[in-house]
Design goal:
heterodimer, A: 179 residues, alpha+beta, Alpha-Beta Plaits, 5-stranded antiparallel beta sheet, B: alpha/beta, Rossmann fold, 3 domains, 6-stranded parallel beta sheet, 20 strands
């Protein structure tokens, strides 16, 4: 089967134990979670998971149905990269001496639309937002001068549709709410 | 709203009563004692059946739920008690049985300290429940218990675990019980999509050789009448899956039997001859389909189910009709033309005749002196005028029960389908009889499975539960032995059993019983067994190397169903 990187977005109620419920559905199929971001969504009281995994369409569609089957999950969706705008954030720690001794690091920061977050006598922290490969490119370039520490976030993503898909679901559900 | 405060334990009892609970299957222990203390004051309103092992409580609650259609309730303590109910919870998850399992838990302040009899049962049960939740304050009891019953019962049913810390059981709380009728994040019954209904009806109207496979969804959805109306209008022959049995009377002219690994010859072969296959409240389990590569490839497939996750999970279908079959079947029936498929329906008969000659005749009416499993099942079914509830354990006894017992009433078959839990039978029969005290409940078990939960004879003794227990004793783990004979060069690796005297054990519990080893003794013992409504254990020495046929060998096509 052809493997594609899918981005799964899960909206859930904010209840204890949900991360476990979500992750065991991937684990049961031995699907490696490439990245996972969990935070409050734009809708009050609703949490959002953004998960990436490399698999085939049949598998990911079954995973999404199993996620949605969990009682505290409102909705789950999966996307390929062309359907979403996505981003990761990375932090690079480099030696401040290296920054001062050469123009290259400054040029790299400009080229990759990165920025200095902090500059101390001993180290400087550069922040960059972008796609996985761009973040890797900057890492490789900076590593010519020695990267002391490097960290990157999981993916966050937003769909190309004009509104939050969950709002339709919520509107429909609210109509059925007997209270 | 009453301002009078009550204990958490009492709040739980009142919540049970608000949910119309009448029976609880349980076992007390340290971390659930305040609840049991409250139960003492409610013992006139709530029947508590004291089992002998917590696994028995879970299976008994399953048996109860399956015959009554109500939610089974289990009450146990923390730690080992909680882990002992896991097999029953998993079984209920796979077989869509509504259960609310209350486990005690150590006091909140001791959580995550490896306290005495502490186990993280909420995490353990997440993959095997519809919902599992820990209550740490008495004030949460009304909300969480209402939600638990709603989730267990609504939509595709299943088990729910409520873990109740000991401090929450003691604490005083105000109690205002509101039944749960809505959960924002949970859509129990998808609304029927009328386009799909029309597509399904059109396909059925066009079909020359339609064939329906019916599962437990029809029983769970109380749609037995709707099913008959649907099948009769379009004259569709039907087979019931293991859990679907008794949704339709065995005697119905359109009923053709059971498909699957040990199903009927015709029911398997017709899967690859029909032009339209209609799955109704079933999930195309691998024991039905065998290898998917050769399953109904020639047919158009329609799938009726309540669970979106079942659609295209195993078998890719042409039309998915989501929703409760109680709603969707009548919508389709309305659009159906009254048709006949006489030739197609009667084409099952020739195959049935082959199966009768090669398998059924000798199995149910043997020419040799040995008693055969099918013979026992047939005779017991006849003695009950096919009106009894059949409970089975797992293995050859289960397949023989499913094949040769006849049903005239719905909710008459209780077995462990998805999980295949040996040891399920005896406690499930206890629960079935408690749930249906006016019906005859017959258990078929093997000598292996019976010993896995044999301790529940104590429950039968104490509660005077009139279960008719039939042990088909071949001194083998028969199904595994059959596979060893067929597929492992007759290498009988650890399938021989040296058994105790089951009748003597029953006698020690004050339960009547008899050993039989001849056809005549069998007839007499069956007559004696049904003389009254008392518990009875009938140990039948059956042919040692009996086999269940037909058989679709693991990995073969349903077309390659073997008669020997």
């Amino acid at each position: 089967m052809e493997q594609t990187l899918y981005t799964v977005i899960v909206f859930s109620e904010n209840r204890p134990g949900l991360l476990n419920q979500v992750s065991i559905i991937f684990a049961r199929r031995r699907l490696n979670i490439e990245s996972l971001t969990v935070s409050a969504s734009s809708i009050h009281g609703i949490h959002k998971f953004t998960i990436t995994a490399l698999t085939d369409e049949d598998t990911i569609s079954k995973v999404v149905k199993e996620l949605e089957k969990r009682v505290d999950v409102l909705k789950a969706y999966f996307y390929v990269d062309s359907e979403i705008i996505y981003q990761e954030v990375a932090l690079y720690k480099v030696d401040t001496e290296a920054v001062l001794n050469s123009d290259v690091i400054e040029e790299l920061v400009r080229k990759y639309n990165a920025r200095f977050l902090e500059i101390t006598r001993s180290f400087s922290v550069i922040e960059m937002a972008g796609h996985t490969d761009e973040i890797k490119e900057l890492y490789d370039a900076l590593n010519e001068f020695g990267v002391m520490q490097f960290v990157r976030s999981g993916r966050i993503a937003i769909t190309k549709s004009t509104k939050e898909l969950l709002s339709d679901f919520l509107a429909e559900r609210n109509l059925e709410d007997p209270r | 709203m009453s301002n009078q405060k009550i204990s958490g334990g009492e709040a739980l009892m009142r919540a049970f009563i608000a949910e119309n609970v009448e029976t609880i299957f349980g076992y007390p222990g340290g971390a659930i004692m305040p609840v049991y203390d409250a139960l003492y004051d409610f013992r006139d309103q709530l029947r508590h059946v004291l089992v002998r092992h917590e696994q028995g409580a879970a299976h008994a609650a399953q048996g109860y739920a399956r015959v009554t259609g109500k939610t089974g309730v289990v009450l146990v303590t923390s730690g080992p008690a909680a882990t002992n109910v896991i097999t029953g919870i998993t079984d209920a998850m796979l077989d869509s049985t509504p259960l609310v399992v209350i486990t005690g838990q150590v006091v909140s302040s001791l959580l995550a300290t490896d306290a005495f009899q502490e186990t993280d049962i909420v995490s353990i049960t997440q993959p095997i429940t519809k919902w599992s939740y820990q209550i740490r304050n008495a004030s949460e009891i009304a909300w969480a218990v209402a939600r638990a019953f709603y989730i267990a019962r609504e939509g595709r049913p299943g088990p729910v675990v409520i873990d109740l810390t000991k401090n929450a059981q003691f604490e005083l709380t105000e109690f205002d019980y509101q039944p749960c009728t809505y959960i924002r994040s949970y859509v129990p019954v998808p609304k029927p999509d009328l386009t799909k209904i029309e597509e399904a009806a059109n396909l059925i109207n066009k079909a020359q050789r339609p064939y329906a496979l019916v599962g437990q969804g029809v029983t769970l959805g109380h749609a037995e009448k709707e099913l008959v109306a649907f099948l009769e209008k379009a004259q569709i022959p039907v087979a019931c899956t293991l859990l679907g049995l008794s949704a339709l009377p065995t005697q119905h002219p359109l009923f053709k039997g059971m498909p699957g690994m040990h199903g009927n010859y015709s029911c398997n072969l017709k899967i690859n001859e029909c032009d339209l296959l209609i799955g109704i409240g079933m999930r195309f389990d691998d024991r039905i389909t065998s290898t998917l590569d050769t399953f109904a490839k020639q047919a158009t497939i329609i799938h009726f189910d309540i669970d979106p996750a079942e659609m295209n999970k195993n078998v890719k279908v042409d039309v998915s009709v989501l929703g409760s079959v109680k709603e969707t079947l009548p919508l389709v029936t309305k659009l159906l033309k009254t048709t006949r498929h006489d030739e197609w329906i009667s084409s099952f008969d020739a195959l049935d005749a082959i199966e009768y000659e090669e398998v059924i005749k000798e199995e149910t009416d043997p020419s040799s002196d040995d008693i055969k499993m099918g013979e026992v099942v047939r005779k017991v079914s006849e003695a009950t005028h096919h009106e009894a509830v059949l409970v089975t354990d797992v293995g050859q006894n289960q397949m023989m029960g499913a094949r040769y017992f006849q049903f005239t009433k719905n909710r008459s078959f209780v077995t462990s389908g998805g999980l295949g839990t040996m040891g399920f039978g005896l406690p499930a029969a206890v629960g079935a009889k408690v749930g249906a005290p006016d019906r005859t409940v017959c258990l078929f078990s093997g000598d292996g499975g019976f010993q896995m939960t044999i301790q529940e004879l104590g429950t039968i003794m104490q509660e005077k539960i009139g279960v008719k227990m039939i042990i088909l004793n071949n001194s083998y783990l028969g199904m595994v032995r059959q596979w060893q004979e067929m597929f492992f060069d007759e290498r009988y690796s650890f399938t021989t059993m040296h058994n105790p005297d089951f009748v003597a054990i029953a006698a020690a519990y004050g339960i009547k019983g008899k050993h039989v080893a001849t056809h005549e003794a069998l007839d007499e013992a069956i007559a004696e067994m049904f003389q009254d409504d008392a518990p009875y254990l009938l140990e039948v020495k059956i042919e040692a190397k009996g086999m269940v046929f037909p058989m679709v060998p693991s990995g073969a096509s349903v077309s390659d169903v073997r008669l020997k």
